[in-house]
Amino acid sequence: MSSQSVYEAAHKGDFEYVRSKVEEDPKLLLTTDSNARMLIHWAVLSGNLKLVTYLIELGSPVNSLDDTDTTPLILASSAGHSEIVKLILEKGDNVNHKSINGHSSLQYAASKGWTEICRLLLENDADINITDTRGSTPLHRAASKGNIEIVRIFLNYIDKLRINQKDVYGNTPLHLACEEDRQEVAVLLVENRADVETKNRDNQTPLDLCSPKLAKLIKNKLENIK
Question: What is the phi/psi pair of residue 62, to 5°?
Fold first, then answer.
């Protein structure tokens, strides 16, 4: 087999094969493939904690970047491998690193609904208001996807959370929740003082984007708050 196949083995989580290849040629630990990825990038995607631990103990850099400036922590966070995320965080990875598109570990975890990973990242000083190239925060991501448990986690940090932050289109998380008809999320945001009158770039408020049912729910909630 060629050296390239060792990356495929790492992606599959084949511990024995990867170990045998690295023992034969220790340089493989720091060698990159055509995507500028090291073995650790592929290993974290496999979810094999034993393999990732082995590579780190041999000196594989946890902050290594691929050709999109993506770190192993970002990949593990996106893939939902909480034990690997925890391990990498213990090694001091930059929790707020962003890829070339401005995507961070917390943004991916928020978008994909990984509650435990969001908790881990926030406990390790992840920036709750971090933005990507479109100005979206993790709350924008969670709200638009309807990931209510993650929205609840973020609301535990209400003193830091910019609940009415706008993206480059002028949309707040509430705009997106309304547009996608994420009713539970929208009502929860309103309960926590999300602004229903803020206008986006198209001069629309969140209420302008609501279904009739959601608009009624929000108006009822506002009456109750008063």
Answer: -75, -15
| pLDDT in the model for residue 223 | 86
d(CA 1, CA 29): 17
Determine the structural domain holding residue 193 and report its residue range: 128-226
> How many whole angstroms separate alpha carbon 60 and alpha carbon 99?
20
Verify that 100 and 177 share a domain, yes or no. no
Residues 105 and 193 in one domain: no
Residues 5 and 71 in one domain: yes
Question: Between 5-12 and 39-46, two packed helices, what is the crossing angle to 10 degrees?
Answer: 30
Segment-wise mean pLDDT, segments of 10 residues, the chain, 226 residues? 76 96 95 96 98 97 96 98 97 91 97 98 98 97 98 97 98 98 98 96 98 95 82
Are 85 and 73 in contact, with CB atoms under 8 Å apart?
yes
d(CA 45, CA 8): 11
Find out whether 106 and 71 touch, Cβ atoms under 8 Å: no
93 and 147 in a single domain? The answer is no
Residues 17 and 9: beta-carbon distance below 8 Å: yes
The reply to whether 27 and 113 lie within a common domain is: yes
Tokens matching residue 159: 């003193």
Residues 1 and 103 both lie in one domain? yes
**Number of compact structural domains in the chain:** 2
* Domain CATH for 194: 1.25.40.20
- pTM more than 0.90: yes
User: Alpha-carbon distance 18 to 3, whole Å?
Assistant: 10
